[in-house]
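In the current project phase, the collection of sequences with tokenised folds has grown. A sample record is quoted in full directly below:
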Amino acid sequence: MIARRRDESGFTLLEVIVAIVIAALCLSALAGVFATGMKSASVSSDYTRAMTIAQGLLAAAGIEKTLNDGAESGTSPDGRLTWTLTVAPEPTEDAENPVRPPLELKRLVARVVIVNPDQTWSNNTRSFELTTLLAIPRATP
């Protein structure tokens, strides 16, 4: 029978508890980093969708339906994005000119607001806005 020395024994209970606490702290820090990454990916996805909707509104203006002055609004199918397309005449310096060009300018503003379902940023409205000018044929009197 061989006797074991005291300094060759296994880990003490205190060492095991310290190792578990260190591992738990590391895992909780990693979980926080993962959660922040997921939230950033969600925000990025929202802005990408908002930009796509705004670009689509501007691209379709005057092509899919008649371009009339005023505002039109709607909501995405999932309810996370609301949009508004505003059409207004753009003032030009030729208003008093007796010979007017055959085209007039319209200012189009596409604004998309990102709706927050969990209300984590209730005081902070996130939105995306694109503006462009569109030359359209002038109405004949």
